[in-house]
Amino acid sequence: MKKGISLIEALIAISLLTFSVVGPMSLISKSLAATSYAKDEIMAFYLAHEALDVIRNIRDTNLKISAPSWTSITTRTGEVQDLKVVCENGCTFDVWENPPLLQTTFISGDQYIKQRTCADGTKLYGYNFGQGSCPRIGPIDPDTIFKREIYVKDVSSGSFDNEISVTAVVKWKANNGVARDVVLNENLFKLSF
Fold first, then answer.
1. pTM, two decimal places
2. What is the pLDDT of residues 61-105, one digit of tens each?
3. DSSP string, the chain
4. Domain segments of the chain as ranges
């Protein structure tokens, strides 16, 4: 008499095999999603930190050249305005517009722009990593998933005009469609040289 496996034994073996494969596959899937989110969050942190660095640079440059105010910028239209006015309700700057003179690239109001990239990857977030020009898709460069907003508030008291609060917010949608953001805040002071 030949002995074989019964149908129940076969079903149990298939079930065990399925569970032993599904568990690790689920873990790999979750790990990939977490890695993607971590990559996006690190990039958003750097973009927010860059915004604080740009405002700090404007302050330092204005103090060095004795500008009208330590928080003044020249807008795209050529007007000299105060960052506290331009960025009170949110603003951003476009590093592709007029590098390295970022003071002239600020946009205020609800015209927030997404961070851009080149179609061929030679430029990312406005910085050129290769030689040559950026191939365009349509009239403008492709957007990335990140949108940066900067808020500048006056926190000085009394007759002293020596402190501002700068908040940089970078927003994006994760691969799963969930809205995410990174918020950095720093108070800057008027320095004396």
1. 0.73
2. 888 887 788 888 877 777 888 888 888 888 887 666 655 566 666
3. ------HHHHHHHHHHHHHHHHHHHHHHHHHHHHHHHHHHHHHHHHHHHHHHHHHHHHHHHHHHHT-SSTTEEE-TTS-EEEHHHHTTT-EEE-TTTSTT-GGGGEEETT---EEEB-TTSSEETTEE-SSSPPPPBTTBPPEEEEEEEEEEEE---TT---EEEEEEEEEEE-TTS-EEEEEEEEEEE----
4. 39-189
